[in-house]
């Protein structure tokens, strides 16, 4: 049990970069001959190298999981409320690693990085990557850092799928796995939303087959639409009603296509902001990785058979109002683990915020994570 | 009780057109000095003119509710399974009217019709129209046809909202109202989906501020996306899973942005088809009419107060798997009517098809409608 203190920030952090020159064979059939990963670490690796925790990010996340940057003090890590001294994932006990996924757009090899073979930006030529490829690349980063076995691998949404895949690809290298607000595979409806987002990007005249940088433009219209439709699925119907309802910006109908309802303003703002910094090819690749994820596929769809390889202790968490990956989807994972007599804890957190709940500082959720991390021996 | 016979088609029908020269003041503040409505009728108006039923259409519907066209035998009306001799809305008893809404794109005055004042297509200059405006225009059509009072006004989705509005705007002119798969107003999430669809159209470079016809183009990309996102909300998660699941067109991942999952093929097909015939300005106007509909607004949000004016006998129907307008939304209408001691029947039909259920030939649903229409005295 770590001594109780008031939660603190990990403070100013500095991203690091690791180069890899051993070719990485990808599930898509392609190969990355050399690549680099950008990552951050918080806390200190202990002498036994037994206290490392890998945090995997979701669709629009990055390696910047906690803390801030010296030159950008307001750029706070996306799971900063979870990670730090005195926080549920306590950096006095654990050595925490965040890594930007391959194909991402925050510094790791990806569409907006230079292709070493051509000296030009990868753009649309960056190969398709899968959850399994990400885990493979993360395992190599662990090798580099001298980490034989993670105390835990954790993630929410697509990050939770990576955590699950860790337990399957490297059962001997991970002691605990937390799968939060995730699913064992996407439904047709999940894929449908991704497909709308992709078509918005692919059909943007400024997409130029993915080589938009070469044309000096960015498909902002498509990215904006993709983010808008995504955002609808991140929030619950109720939380949208609570936050925005039918509030009218001008108190009455103005009969125009300018913002009338506050929800329109929110979505446009989120869409514009996202289109200003995210890479369209990364968005496409990442939604594809989501669609492809299906560890039971090679087991004829039988999830218990797929999870038989896992030996880690699991924590599975869902949120009552998450309709993107509903509690039912988490229970599929739990049942499959129980079928294999694996050690699994499951919590369905009553939280109104929908899928995005996994990012929030919800008391019961964080207390649960605190208790779980506390019990992990390092 | 109408004699039982095997259901038959109303056969070949011919659309009719009514011209109006009395200015129509619109809720948006604009005025249509003259306009025309395209409509169809099935069955025969009785001597008392007491057997007329108005069918109101939803977002992408039209006046072509039943039967076929001589020159297009496969163009079957959108509610043909409901209307005809021996069908639930039996044309041996009732005189049924379908009318294309003002602002529509199937022949009534709208963006793709000539503006009499300029001799050019209306395009983006067609004024905003509301559910209330439609009801007003439909009442004038009823006047023209010599119908003082409708035996019933019925509709699903946006059509159900029009039926509800009929009971409020003309309580003395409608005996029965069927509100199917509708809601008393949109939620923030409903508006959000409409807003994504609108932004897809508005941001299409070929939209040209709505004057695309003048530019010899059509914003097909935007319309396609709008329809794709709409379609996701018309189907239930379960019915999508049932119909498409994760079926792969090639039996394996192809790692491309071509169709991989069957659901992608379905959505693209629906989107392309729709973009080939529907008018973008009509889509925009109609989603706005949906957003604006809120009869309780002028009563401080108190629906029972808004519905106090209604005197018709109501039938309210919802479908268990409809997540666009869930049963809860229908129950709001029912409670508000009961609060006013109005005569209302309510049925929640267990049907897996989601919002689109109201268009389907679901046995219990159609039996219920049969019984309801049978009891209406004309």
Automatic annotation (TrEMBL), chains A, B:
InterPro entries: AB_hydrolase_1, AB_hydrolase_fold, HAT_MetX-like. The keyword Metal-binding does not apply. Substrate binds at residues 227, 356. Pfam families: Abhydrolase_1. GO terms for molecular function: homoserine O-acetyltransferase activity; homoserine O-succinyltransferase activity. Pathway: Amino-acid biosynthesis; L-methionine biosynthesis via de novo pathway; O-succinyl-L-homoserine from L-homoserine: step 1/1. The record marks 324 as: Important for acyl-CoA specificity. Residues 51-359 form the AB hydrolase-1 domain. Its EC number is 2.3.1.46. Keywords: Acyltransferase, Amino-acid biosynthesis, Cytoplasm, Methionine biosynthesis, Transferase. The keyword Chloroplast does not apply. It comes from the Bacteria. It catalyses: L-homoserine + succinyl-CoA = O-succinyl-L-homoserine + CoA. GO terms for cellular component: cytoplasm. GO terms for biological process: homoserine metabolic process; methionine biosynthetic process. The active site is at residues 157, 322, 355. It is found in: Cytoplasm. Its main location: cytoplasm. Homodimer. Transfers a succinyl group from succinyl-CoA to L-homoserine, forming succinyl-L-homoserine. Belongs to the AB hydrolase superfamily. MetX family. This is Homoserine O-succinyltransferase. The gene is metXS.
């Amino acid at each position: 049990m770590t001594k109780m203190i008031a939660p603190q920030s990990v403070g100013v952090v500095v991203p690091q970069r690791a180069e890899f020159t051993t070719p990485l064979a990808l599930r898509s059939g392609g190969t990355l001959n050399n690549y680099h990963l950008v990552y951050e670490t918080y806390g200190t690796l202990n002498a036994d190298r037994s206290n490392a925790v890998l945090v995997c990010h979701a669709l629009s996340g990055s390696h910047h999981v906690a803390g801030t940057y010296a030159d950008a003090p307001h750029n706070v890590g996306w799971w900063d409320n979870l990670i730090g001294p005195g926080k549920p994932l306590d950096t006095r006990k654990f050595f925490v690693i965040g890594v930007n996924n391959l194909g991402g757009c925050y510094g790791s090899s990806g569409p907006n990085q230079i292709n070493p073979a051509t000296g030009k930006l990868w753009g649309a030529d960056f190969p398709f990557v899968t959850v399994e490829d990400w885990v493979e690349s993360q395992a190599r980063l662990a090798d580099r850092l001298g980490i034989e076995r993670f105390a835990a691998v954790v993630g929410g949404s697509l990050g939770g799928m990576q955590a699950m895949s860790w337990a399957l690809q490297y059962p001997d290298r991970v002691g605990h796995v937390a799968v939060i607000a995730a699913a064992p595979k996407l439904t047709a409806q999940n894929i449908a939303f991704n497909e709308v987002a992709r078509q918005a990007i692919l059909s943007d005249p400024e997409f130029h087959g993915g080589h938009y940088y070469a044309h000096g433009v960015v498909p902002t219209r498509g990215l904006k639409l993709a983010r808008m439709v995504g955002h609808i699925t991140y929030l619950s119907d109720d939380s949208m009603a609570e936050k925005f309802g039918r509030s009218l910006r001008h108190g009455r109908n103005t009969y125009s296509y300018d913002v009338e309802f506050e929800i329109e303003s929110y979505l446009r703002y989120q869409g514009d902001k996202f289109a200003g910094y995210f890479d369209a090819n990364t968005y496409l690749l990442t939604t594809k990785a989501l669609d492809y994820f299906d560890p039971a596929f090679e087991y004829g769809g039988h999830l218990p058979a797929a999870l038989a390889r896992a030996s880690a202790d699991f924590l599975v968490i869902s949120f009552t109002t998450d309709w993107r990956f509903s509690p039912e989807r988490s229970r599929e994972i739990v049942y499959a683990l129980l079928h294999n007599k694996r050690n699994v804890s499951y919590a369905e957190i009553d939280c109104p915020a929908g899928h995005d709940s996994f990012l929030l500082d919800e008391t019961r959720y964080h207390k649960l994570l605190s208790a779980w991390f506390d019990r992990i021996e390092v």
